[in-house]
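Render this sequence as a predicted structure.
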Amino acid sequence: MEEIVLPRDRQERRDWLQDAGVHAVAAALNRAGAKDCARAFRELPAGKALPVFSRLEPPAQKAIVEDHEGEERKALIEGMAPDNRARLIAYLPEDRAQSLLESLGEEARALTRQLLAYPEQSAGRIMTPEFVRLRPDMSVADALEEVRAKAERAETIHFMPVVDEDMTLVGTVGLGQLVLAEGGQSVGDVATRDVPSVETKTDQEAVARLMKEADLMAVPVVGEDGRLVGIVTFDDAMEVLEFEQAEDIARAGATEPAAAPYLSVSLFGLVRSRITWLAVLMLAYALTVQVLDAFEAQLEETVALALFIPLLIGMGGNAGTQSVTTVVRALAVRDIGTADALAVAGKEVGAALVMGAALALAGYALLIAFFPPGIALTVALSGLAIIGFAALSGAVMPMVARVLSIDPAVFSSPVVNTVIDAVGLVIYFLIAKAVLGI
């Protein structure tokens, strides 16, 4: 995919903003700095401004909102879908968000506050309350008239909930079903029954996974009383999955996910996202130092042991990374659950022991030509034991995190590797003590 960059030359930029598609412009503004983003947005043709603004990420929207005042700003905010408007308001500082809310019209303010009342990263936060709702006793002809009357304000007309007078979900119907049905049929006869739904407090990732697995364009959202309050559409679900994937990748690299595109993150924002993890890992690596200090006498007696520390620790780290990456991903896509912990641990350790045995035999055959038999045997047995322990750690730690309601991605490669480093050294020196008698 070709990289989209905002032209620096003023006339060239204006020509490009005039001709480029809405998605291309939004992609360019998301990557631009705050000042460049606000300046370029001012140069957009009037008919393109709102569609572009609605597709921007909150940092770019914030830059534009701060560059507008009065009716201009109000028109931009009120023109957004309620769920996107709530996301922007939640991103802004509290005083700024409150001021912006108060400037909105009564309906837009009420819808936004309704969504903001739900917990962060819940179905209630990402749902839209603007949709076409149909009754089961309506004729198909009347339903089509209802669609025509309300389509402009609805998030989608390809998925419409069917509810009774108490707003209890009866089923769903798509526009295609209505078009193909006879005009005299009732909506209840055409509707799909027993459709999955979620509650407002359901985690947004669970909602997105459900939609992906069930191949749904949208999913109804009900309150605690079982009444329909909104729908989550496919585009919002994909954004959630993208965010969760970015979060897992960031934590796997011992950092926190950025809340904005890379170039929009300040230097201190980048530092904040990384320094905590570095400090924690620095303290954790102190365990490795303590282990080396405890076995200093053995190292002094057999200096050759020190030569193989990087090799063994590196092997253990790689084995741990393989296991933890596999297990975290399997948990994320629901291939496995915590009930499968023993099976997963057994499979990972089994695979690790097979690989470890093969590497240990190859290593022993190589080392015996250059080092005493005791050293070669110590290194070979240590490699086998460390790889097995590393695989066990990588399999079990994400499972434990899930049981404790912690994101399994927190137990990323650096965290697992730190544990493996410390324990791996203990294993190495204990085997050396047993084999070499030191």
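Summary. The chain has 22 helices and five strands. The first strand starts at residue 160 and ends at 163.
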